[in-house]
Amino acid sequence: MNEVARKPIGRFVPLLVFAALVVFFVIGLLWNQSHDARFVPSPLIDKPAPEFRLPRLENPTQFVTKADLLGKPYLLNVFASWCFACGDEHPVLMAYRDKFGVSLIGYDYKDAPQDARAWLDRHGNPYHEVIADQSGETAINFGVYGAPETYLIDAKGIIRYKHIGPLTPDVIAKELEPKIRALAQEGST
Amino acid sequence: MNPELGQVALILALVLSALQCALPIVGAWRGSKPLMATAPTLAIGQAVFVALAFGILMWSFWINDFSVAYVAQNSNLSLPWFYKLSAVWGAHEGSLLLWMLILNGWTVALVIFGGKLPEAFFSRVIGVLGFVAFGFLLYMISTSNPFLRQFPVPANGADLNPVLQDPGLVFHPPTLYMGYVGFSVAFAFAIASLLGGELKSTWVRWARPWTNVAWGFLTLGIVAGSAWAYYELGWGGWWFWDPVENASFMPWLIGAALIHAQAITDKRDGLRAWTLLLSIFGFAFSLLGTFLVRSGLLTSVHSFAFAPARGVFILVYLAVVVGGSLLLYALRAPKVTGGKSFALASRETLMVIGNLMLTVACAMVLLGTLYPLVGEALNIGRISVGPPYFGPLFLILMTPLVLALPFGPLSRWGKADLTVWRKALIRIVALAVAAGIIGFIVGARGWYQLLGITASVWVMAGVVLFAIKRWREAPRGKRYPFEMLGMMLAHFGIGVFIAGAILTTSMSVEQDVSMKPGTNVDVGAYDFHFNGVTETEGPNYRAQQGTVVITRNGKHVVTLHPQKRTYSGGQVQTEAAIEAGVFRDLYVSLGDPIGGGAWSLRVYDKPFVRWIWGGGVLMMLGGFAVVLDKRFRLRRAVESETVRATPEPEAPRKLAEGEA
Known about the structure:
The complex is a heterodimer of chains A (about 190) and B (about 650). Chain A is of the alpha/beta class. Chain A contains seven helices and seven strands, in the order ααββαβαβαβαββα.
């Protein structure tokens, strides 16, 4: 090892190796700017949404199925009364519910129905319809990663877009609204 | 107290750190005594302001000042007081402040204990530490200010992440940072020697106690983290090869290599360049760990919330500090390197083998940790490698090290002495084989268990033989100097660790079962009886608590109460219940209700699991013991340049230290 140090070039080897490592990190950071490190690409994008049959939160004897919602595009927003970030997202949904141009379906995830109802009563209900998945089994088919999550599903029941984490005005303006507009154009042509 | 004062304190500390970097180094360069004399004052001044900032943040937690965003995000009115205080380092901003506080602690220790170092050298060391501190303070102030206010002020905080609500949080980060940051001292010594163009490698002796203490703390930090994961994550593992565990393990490996390289350079004046490089790498890996965890580049259970600016800043900092150091090494190394050569069968050779294995293992861990990034760079998506990569490779790399380990202390410096080796080899093989046979008789079956016992005794036998040898050959009172005692403790600890790691892995009985109240399950020799689940309440959580009665041959052993807690923030956290013992742990963790009153439970019988951490604690004690050695007491004499330049006479040293 000392011999290496005596040769002039050998002494630069550690520096060069380190420089290569730094270049590598720069690539990693750049990649991260365009991708969320925690982002798990949903294999369901542009695939049909899974079949489901879930009770309505307000009236658990009535069921809503995938077929019931076909014909018009809609947003499916996964939330829960226990979910802290959903509380952050809630005012945004209240403000945008009528501006989306599509109906907003609440998907109550792994929640006690009475807790969810109390939560919506207290904070206000931004949803046009709320379905309850108390066991979380249907959510597995959707690939729900954690609440909140939002799916944009088109008139044919195909998932067109998914957002993990709370919706913010920024995300809505930059990502969600363009997708909804594109869907509307598809529908008109 | 006003949080803004904390920020002012940080800014003042930043100014002082810039001065602490510039003045003493310029002073040492120009030979200006007054400039060099500023070093202790500036270092202590900076420490005072950082400590003030830390105290203010802690106070904000204590009084629930939720106008401070960091407090609001990481605390809660109902959080118990000890978690409130340790929540200070529960997330990114505050843990950086802890990092800084500890860096200042080390610097102040250096001011206190290093006062007898040659003034120019001491000034450079303090200057380098000032530079390190400057970078981190700038980082905090520009991207990660813990004192940021938020309005409107929330009525209550979001609460500390439940995983962190554990005594582990009180000990694990501070001890780990003590280790991480402690390597900055060895680093500063190495850079100071390069800057000053020290012709002698005397600086290595001054650096040795600092390296050993830092490594001891790092060992303790890793042990604490491993034990924490064991009972908090709810599935009884003790090491996961998680990116952040790896980030702490890499400096540990380099540190272990550095300790041995420093010993060679100190005693035999060999491997100077290698010691320099390892000193730089030790700290580089500490910084790299910080970068990986906080840049969002890799995801793990430890990930901090990140902002892109943070990643960029640390990368630039890493590039400047490590790149600059390596450049300095490339330019200045020929001046300071050189040294003696040694025979093939000497102690140096064995230590070099150990060094190589440790550094290669570190490179292997680095490669595995960065693998997801490779996938990105090649555009094939994120791929991570896990235990199937790390486990076998680590085992393969450590095998030569473990085989060579007992012979290192038994062989001679510089010279080949094959008769010593032959005698030792016969005894160690005999002892290890005997242990294997006894193990077989006692009931160990399976080659992996027997291998564990044999390897463990192989290492421990070497330590015992060495102790006997010293007892016979060295004069009374000089048999076991602290340096040697430290080595023996650490090596013995490795033996204990091997036994723990291999026996736990091969002998554990782990069952995931679904149980209705009133039913039994057999795990190993034990009978677990499930008595159902009741509701209970803690200060800031509700819990479902199971009751499991464990019996052996009809005799009551213990009753355990595993919990599944729901915290006020809604997060669910499993609390395993563990009956800890020297020879085995009984472990129960509560899963989910399956319906019909049944619950899923994990029930484990984990023999020898404590030995893993016991071995770690012995290694830590070894690192600490070395510091007490007389060898490292600085003599007044070193202040005079002439004495420092005199090489130590070989003969009297041999007499005093025997084979050490």
